Amino acid sequence: MEEIREISIDIESYSDYDLGKCGVYKYSESPNFGILLFAVSVNGGPVKVYDFAKGEELPRELLLALVDDDVIKWAFNASFERICISAWLRKHHPEIFRSYGVPGDSFGNYLNPESWRCSMVWSAYMGLPLSLEGAGTVLGLDKQKMKEGKDLIRYFCVPCKPTISNCGRTRNLPKHVPDKWELFKSYNIRDVETEMGIKEKLKNYPVPDFIWDEYHLDQQINDRGIALDMELVENAIAFDEKSKSVISDRVKSLTGLENPNSVMQLRAWLFDRGIETETLGKKAVAELIKSAPEDMTEVLSLRQQLAKSSVKKYQAMQNAVCADGRARGMFQFYGANRTGRWSGRLIQLQNLPQNHMEDLAEARELVRQGNYEAIELLYDDIPDTLSQLIRTAFIPKEGYRFYVADFSAIEARVIAHLAGETWRSDVFRNGGDIYCASASKMFGVPVEKHGINGHLRQKGKIAELALGYGGSVGALKAMGALDMGLQEEELRPLVTAWRESNPNIVRLWWAVDEAVKTAIKTGTPQETHGLRFECRSGMLFILLPSGRKLCYVKPRISENRFGGESVTYEGIGATKKWERLESYGPKFVENIVQAISRDLLMNAMKTLSHCFICGHVHDELIIECREEVSLEEVCRQMARVPKWFEGILLRADGYVTDFYKKD
Question: What is the pTM of this model?
Answer without folding.
Answer: 0.93
